[in-house]
Amino acid sequence: MKKHIINISIVSLTFLFTLSCTKVDFGDTNIDPNNPTENLTNALLSNALFVTGGASTAITPGYYVQHYSDIQYTDGSRYGTSEFGYNGFYTGTLHNLERIIALNTNDNTKNDVATYGNNDNQIAVAKLVKAFTYQQMTDRWGYIPFSQAHKPGEFDFPEFDSSITIYDQLFNLIDEALAQIKTSESGPTGDIIFQGNMERWKQFGNTLKLVMALRLSDASSEMTTASGINNYAETKFNEAMPGAISNQAEDILFPYTLDDATDNPWQDRYNGNRAPDFTVSKTLVDFLQDPNRNDPRIAKYADEVQNAPGTYVGMEYAVISPNVDRQDISLLTSNIANKGDAPGYVFTYAQVAFAKAEAALKGWISGTPSDYYYEGINASMKQWAVTDAQYNTYITQPAVVWDAARGIELIAEQKWIALFMQPFEAWAEWRRLDLPALTPAASPINGTAIPVRYGYSSTINDSNRAELQKAIQSQGLPTLDDLGTKLFWDKN
Known about the structure:
By secondary structure, this protein is mainly α. Among the domains are: 1-59 and 81-196 and 455-481, Serine Threonine Protein Phosphatase 5, Tetratricopeptide repeat; 265-337, no CATH class. The protein has 21 helices and 6 strands. It has helices at residues 2-7, 9-21, 41-57, 60-64, 87-105, 110-113, 119-141, 163-180, 198-215, 220-227, 232-240, 265-270, 282-288, 298-301, 334-337, 349-362, 369-383, 388-394, 407-418, 423-433, 461-475, and strands spanning 68-70, 144-145, 160-161, 252-254, 278-280, 344-347. A two-stranded antiparallel ribbon has the order 1-5. The protein has a two-stranded antiparallel sheet with strand order 2-3. The longest helix has 23 residues, at 119-141.
């Protein structure tokens, strides 16, 4: 697999650079997928799959939920960026996925590209990654081009669809993909996550669907009105649960490698010009070390203080001029920061178990909420190689023991802890639940509160001004770079 990854590393690096650095609009969103410049669907898929790794190693949402902090350059934790571009998604990931679908559908090309895996399985995987990508995008920006994107000539200025519409269509897309999977046929080559194992892709699709369904738990009525499906969120959750990952061993990971082109981005961050600037936030460290909690995961998330072995000290969050010695602060665990092949966490059973706990508390599913709650804690402990003995002690701590009266609060707190290194999931779930209570940066560069959305890039006006302005007005945004207006599912 490593040899294959190296072969596509130049393509991947180009995409990753575009995705992480650009602040322009979607530009040539409507590139014609029926006339690709190359037919290597294996390379196109490998390239597209990097979006899942990027979601698991992003910095900005980790700042927002106060998992990370900085020693020197604190603009990120003070909400220094208000405009975020998404050009790389459309011209990179999504364009490649559309090409895979087109090449495997077109009668003139599908037999040729079948050498890279069964046509239906290639299409199904492309659809699942497409659903994942669009869900990630709409959870960041809200309205985005969807139904009219990638349709050159027909829609040169694609409109921005509402998040409600996008979510509904994504569930349909996932269902299409799951129905299309043929487990008895060959999976796609270029699959750097599951190596063509279509049973695992079924788990991916159902886990994605389950996570999306819970996100809509407070907006189910809007989804019901829009779709005509009663109890929308509950229905989708129950459809997905039997096929979702069911234990910690089935965690869905992005397989970074020791090769410089495809290693975990945290290694480069810790060995670059700013190294090492990123630390574990005091907010998280203090929470874990609360005497009523005594969480053993502190030793897995953070390194001991160099000047005080055996101790953990988090970095004060969003301080303008910290003036702190690195040797007096706990840096991010070396098992990630200095380990190129540390995996990216895409979906974990811990988050699924906590989702089940909440669903049981809501009466969506049978079972005891406390059982799922403890199952989630245990899965997180196993994920981070905490011993059974430590787990057994931990669940007796006063701030951890299940209390039905505080059920949502306890689930939210444990989910916030467990979603460390799953930054976009942690941010989305914190926005939805507003727990645990976090104090915004004292001297924010933008806004006055913790951001609850990404602002649009101003350069979108260069190519699609009219449609962008409609989207801004429809969402009630005061400005295009607003960070404080909640998405439709963010009700609390």
